[in-house]
Design goal:
This protein has 12 helices and 2 strands; from the N terminus they run ααααββαααααααα. By secondary structure, it is mainly α.
Amino acid sequence: MTIDPIFSDAIIFSSLLTLLGIGLTLTYITTRVPNFAHASFATIGVYIALIVTHVWGLVPYIAIPISFAISGIVAVLLYTFILKPLIRKGSSQAIQMIATLAFDLVMIALLNITADYIVKTYQITSREFSLRSYDIEFMGLPLIVIVAPITIAILAITLHIMLRKTKFGIAMRAATENSDLAETVGINVKLIYGVSWLLGGGFAGIAGALMSLWFQGDPNLGPQLIPSVFAASISGGFLSIYGAIAGGILVGLTEVLGTRFLAGEFGAWLIAYRPLIPLIFIVVTLFLAPKGLAGINWSKLRRHGFRS
């Protein structure tokens, strides 16, 4: 089986962007703070995959659970030791947002140090690298083309069941909708928030581990990804997990396939302007549908469409 590489790009990028968007939305609905460090959690996953593959000599997919754990723990550290104290002191949302930006700068510095250490110690390329040649083939396709969308489907279904069918999920929804009321009925809101940050960071780590199998890894990957991640979450409504899934798929496919289409029509020079696409999504969403895809009354639109 063969697929045009541009469609493989689109499938993998939109799947991983969806995963990152779900994670960012999970953290936003708890603390209402846009986390600018979120994409760097994925960069951690990228470097764990590099270490697992080149240093330990294992299959890159072994990095998935390790990346989930380490990126999740880093996210919990950000929430526990930086955001929680700021929230307790009554800091504004802008201050908390700047704190996540500062945390991101520290993480990028640490990732650069890690990259330098890997080069000096193991003589391995640790900047602008790809693990694509280490992927396994399945039915003539790189396994990542199949694994990326399946991972999203499994995690989305698991998250849906957790939120709708389990006591913990119901408690999480109650805590995010009205934390004061949730506390009065005995829900441990702090634990709920901590688990949300663990899951959000962990999902980003998984996305990073998978990303290394198709795209280039670099310590500065986070700042390059963050506009697309925000576009996915904002397009989805920023407060809806299901919206984040729709937003991630829409923004991811548009970025890859839209750029390809425009480059074919107007010339390859347009490829350099691909980073503008997520910014356009953010601006259009905030102006036309501030609540995103999740806030649009689709049944009303359908009725209006049938009448016209």
